[in-house]
């Protein structure tokens, strides 16, 4: 039997400190409830294609669409589709008409503004990129 517990389901042994607070003796934590050993919730990770990974690699700084075209070598329609998927997942932000004005992603307006905008990886996007 474990030291400190007299039977299964029994309350843990406690004593009081000088201020009258209850201390749990075998929890490893002073003055608080007994430690629990529950597993943390699993972190949700998104699957990323190689093209999306390469695209996020270019988005550490605010980058215009035409520069992305040159650096990635993707056709304009495919690049815009990749950016749209990353925007839907929240991994990228986009800015228009200047690099300081962020727009909320809307699929209807993205088609018209996508090639004139600048892009930047979000914090979640950078985490996904660095943990792959």
Structural commentary:
The chain is an alpha+beta fold and 132 residues long. The protein folds into two domains: 1-38, no CATH class; 50-131, Arc Repressor Mutant, subunit A, CATH 1.10.10. It is 35% helix and 14% strand. It has five helices and six strands; from the N terminus they run E-E-H-E-H-H-E-E-H-E-H. It has helices at 50-57, 65-72, 76-89, 107-113, 123-131; strands at residues 14-16, 22-24, 63-64, 92-95, 102-103, 118-121. The chain has a four-stranded antiparallel sheet. Strands 1-2 form a two-stranded antiparallel sheet. Strand 1 and strand 2 (22-24) form a beta hairpin. The longest helix is centred in the middle third of the chain and has 14 residues, at 76-89. It is elongated, with a radius of gyration of 26 Å. The two termini are 45 Å apart. The relative contact order is 0.14. The mean pLDDT is 79.
Keywords:
132 residues, alpha+beta, Arc Repressor Mutant, subunit A, 4-stranded antiparallel beta sheet, 6 strands
CATH architecture of the largest domain: Orthogonal Bundle
Quaternary organisation: single chain
Question: Can you list the strand order of the major beta sheet?
Answer: 3-6-4-5
Number of strands: 6
SSE topology string: EEHEHHEEHEH
Beta-strand content bin: 5-15%
Please name the CATH topology of the largest domain.
Answer: Arc Repressor Mutant, subunit A
Unreliable stretches: none
Outline the fold blueprint:
Layout: E1 14-16, E2 22-24, H1 50-57, E3 63-64, H2 65-72, H3 76-89, E4 92-95, E5 102-103, H4 107-113, E6 118-121, H5 123-131
Antiparallel strand pairs: 1-2, 3-6, 4-5, 4-6
């Amino acid at each position: 039997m474990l030291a400190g517990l007299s039977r299964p389901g029994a309350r843990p042994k406690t004593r009081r400190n000088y201020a009258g607070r209850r201390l749990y003796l075998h929890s490893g934590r002073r003055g608080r409830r007994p430690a629990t050993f529950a597993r943390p919730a699993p972190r949700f990770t998104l699957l990323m294609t190689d093209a999306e990974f390469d695209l996020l690699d270019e988005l550490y700084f605010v980058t215009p669409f035409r520069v992305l075209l040159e650096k990635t070598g993707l056709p304009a329609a495919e690049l815009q589709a990749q950016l749209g998927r990353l925007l839907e997942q929240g991994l990228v932000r986009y800015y228009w008409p200047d690099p300081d004005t962020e727009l909320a992603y809307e699929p209807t307006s993205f088609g018209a503004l996508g090639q004139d905008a600048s892009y930047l990886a979000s914090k979640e996007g950078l985490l996904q990129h660095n943990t792959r």
